[in-house]
Design brief:
With about 230 residues, the chain is mainly beta. The protein contains 2 helices and 15 strands.
Length: about 230
């Protein structure tokens, strides 16, 4: 994590406890007899129908809320294969399900789940399909959580675009200047190639207006809600 994000995390979570990430996901199941992703599971809600495993067919996505604050994401593939992954969301407020969208360059969507809320910063876990499993995908910088923010002094955003078939993700950040005027930031761009993120540029930016700095914050990825 960069020095900027390390400082931001310290400021943002000062008024809330930090709970570590939950352990490994539940055992694998192969259940071709299932007709629904929530069959026989309490506190489970169907949240989306999208192609998660990348085979071109829609899969069913469910989420289970646990009393201790964990959340389990369940995916029932079009072939009847059930996979589960549990992450900690005990310091998240409201429903941790944020949405599904293509983020990296592999086929299939990623699942975005709320993990932690600080004073205003939001931390997410992103789950992806790898070799028949649901696993946590790190952000392009290598951090285990994906971070967004929009506040008076700090703004962080995740931006995705496709250029000539190539997937680019830009992690953008800005902090208010020491004199209280303008915001100084950095855009770091990553390219998806050879099954991983590759850093291609890092640019310093200055925003003269608050409105310009505020615009960079949040998710700017497909149909995902911004916050």
């Amino acid at each position: 994590m960069s020095r900027f994000l390390s400082l931001l995390v310290a400021v943002s979570v000062a008024s809330t406890s930090f709970v570590g990430v939950a352990g490994a996901g539940a055992p694998i199941e192969v259940s071709p007899r299932l007709t629904g992703v929530c069959d026989g599971t309490q506190d489970c809600k169907v949240v989306a129908t999208r192609d998660v495993d990348g085979d071109g067919h829609r899969d069913r996505i469910g989420r289970v809320l646990h009393p201790d604050g964990r959340v389990t994401m369940r995916v029932l593939t079009s072939e009847g294969m059930l996979r589960r992954k549990t992450v900690d969301a005990s310091d998240w407020y409201g429903d941790p399900w944020h949405g599904a969208a293509g983020i990296d360059g592999r086929r299939g969507v990623e699942l975005v789940v709320g993990h932690l809320v600080g004073a205003h910063t939001e931390f997410f876990k992103v789950l992806t399909w790898r070799a028949g499993e649901l696993v946590v995908e790190r952000d392009p910088s290598g951090d285990a959580t994906w971070v967004v923010d929009s506040s008076v002094n700090f703004n962080i955003g995740v931006w995705r675009r496709v250029v000539d078939g190539e997937v680019l993700v830009r992690l953008r950040s800005a902090v208010r200047g020491a004199a209280g005027h303008g915001h100084n930031g950095r855009d770091v761009t990553y390219h998806w190639a050879h099954k991983r993120w590759n850093k291609v540029s890092s640019i310093h930016r200055h925003y003269r207006s608050d409105a310009a700095a505020f615009r960079i914050g949040g998710w700017h990825v497909g149909s995902l809600p911004r916050f």
